[in-house]
Design brief:
The chain starts with a strand and ends with a helix. It has about 160 residues and is an alpha/beta fold. About 35% of the residues are buried.
Amino acid sequence: MNGLLIGRFQPFHIGHLSAVKFALSNVEKLWIGIGSSNKSHEKRNPFTADERKQMILFSLDPETRGRVEIYYVPDIGDHERWTYHLDSIVPKYDVVFSNDDFTISLYQKRGIKVIPVPLLQREMVSGTNIREMIAAGKDWSSLVPQGTKNVLLSIGAKQRLCNIL
C-alpha cells in the first residue's frame, strides 16, 4: 500500500519527521509532496523546493529513504482542482496523511481515505515558529533533525530570513 504526505516543509522539522515515521508505519511506500514548490524567498516560503528536498533526504536514515519518494507540487491557484493536479504528479496512492482540515475535506469529497497524523508539540514545533527563532538568533536546533540543521546552516538561513521577515 502507498501513502501520500503533503507539506510545505518550511523547514522540515521534528514534527514532519515524526509524521513520516507514522505514515511509514501504515504503508509500504510514502510519496512526499513538497507543496508550494514554485515559491521561495518569501515570508511563508523562504526555502526553495530543492533545499527542502535536501532537508528531508538528509534527515532520513537510509532504510527510510528507500521507502520514500519526493515530488514537487506547485501551487496552481485552484483549490478544487488541486488534488487532481497532484494526482498528475505523484504515482497512485491508497491513503493520504494530513492534519490540514481543508486538505482532508478535499480528499474526503473524492472518497479517498485520510489518516490524521498525531501532532508533535504543535505550539513549539511549527515552521513559522522555527523561522522566527532562526531570524531572532534563538536556539532552534532541537526542533529540527540534524540533516535539516546542516542544510539551514549551509545556505545561510539566518541571513535569508532576516532579509525576508
